[in-house]
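Worked example 2:
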Amino acid sequence: MKLRDAKCSVENIENVRKRRQFGHPWLSGGLFEHRVQTLLITYRTLRISKLQTYSYNTKPVSEYISIHGNFLLRQKISWVVRGGYNMYIAKETRYDNMKYNYCGASGLKLPAVSLGLWHNFGSNGNFDTMMDMCETAFDNGITHFDLANNYGPYDGAAEENFGKILDKSLRPYRDEMIISTKAGYTMWPGPYGDWGSKKYLVASLDQSLKRMGLDYVDIFYHHRPDPNTPLEETACALDGIVRSGKALYVGISNYNKEQTIEIAKLFKEMKTPFIINQRRYNMFDREMEEDGLKDYAAANGIGIITFCPLAQGLLTNRYLNGIPEDSRIRTDGRFLKETAINEETIAKVRALNVIAENRGQTLAEMALAWILRDNDITSVLIGASRPSQILDNIGMLANMTFTQEEREKIDRITK
């Protein structure tokens, strides 16, 4: 929610002003104080007043404010703040509809839907769209933002852009956010920029914190198992990172059941707050069920967060009638190949779409709800290229229950 859309009472202006005392990134210096004083004087004494406010580059902007009842209504007001962006104020109703689940046996809750910044937050994306997506997510109760050191393109670009978004928009709400990042894939040249050594993990997190302008992350993941580094070293590195205050919790990603069991034992011995495993999971990719991790995690107090819930867009209505020219296959093609769109697969997608329509859902909504059907998955990570997709996806919260007949039909189609 932008201030330009808000009704601003004297009380609200005073509250915004008070936030300056607590390090609000925009609310520093005499310029803002002068602006607030002018607004208060205008509110109290005039019915219509012409103002001038100044951006940080001192360019004047004409303003008109009219007074009506107890509210200051914008006719042509734009608060010009750092970088030319309007001040973001989160919706007061942001927690009303989202469901929050405990992450395993920990006291941390994650939203049922989390926003992943794997795609569309790199150097090839539009920054205004990125910021709008993050604000839309937060306005609708998505408090968890998931990154990794190598998300881009280029490596590190998603973290850099997210740091800018925090500065321009979300940083005042840091204590209401769960921010995670990861290290495990190639990040820089030489023998120390990859895998799971203590040298790499500690250095990578330091770099991530600098890119995002953070003192700590809420969850720090080892991104993939390392066959050449002793597991004890990786586990000890993650434990040390928590004890250093640079992460509150640790997680693992792409670990199978046996690997999870092994590292969980080490974490238990060290009393490390290990709370979550991040795995690929969707109707077409059941590996997490097949290797037993899904059941093991639920029985042993380990949270699970899933990525690729829509099979890179395959479990949506995008490909029901062929491959659109603006689809990810056409514009990127790194993760979903054209060879995956064959007649057999499309027939399955169309059959699933019929079930979704009978449930009063889109195929994407049903696919997301299906992941959370058994209450043993903590959160599902969604990606987006525009804010409307986020709103569409969280629509699944309206119907997360499946009949036994629906479950069996889905299994027959996808297995």
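Residues 1-11, 16-84 have pLDDT under 50 and may be disordered. The chain has 14 helices and 13 strands.
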